[in-house]
Fold:
Amino acid sequence: HPAVINLIRQVVESAHQYGKWVGVCGELAGDPVAAPVLVGMGVDELSMNPGGIPRVKDLLHKMDLNMVKEMAASVLVCETAPAARRTAKEYLQKQGVM
Structure:
């Protein structure tokens, strides 16, 4: 949901002001559609089920920092969870990484 994504962004910004890293673990970190958004917002570490690592790693290797930042920015302006997910998927498809 966009509110959760915005909250994570705020945590990242605040933590980085004090030299602290931010990690996200669980299903969101292991979601190939969400992981680039998290990285684009500055999340420093993703922790996930070992089975999800190859897929997320492969996807992130196909993207550069500008791409993940642009993707995150496009998701952060969405008003609903379905719109955010759709926007993220469309971005990945448009870039040819998914």
Remarks:
- Strands lie at 23-25, 45-47.
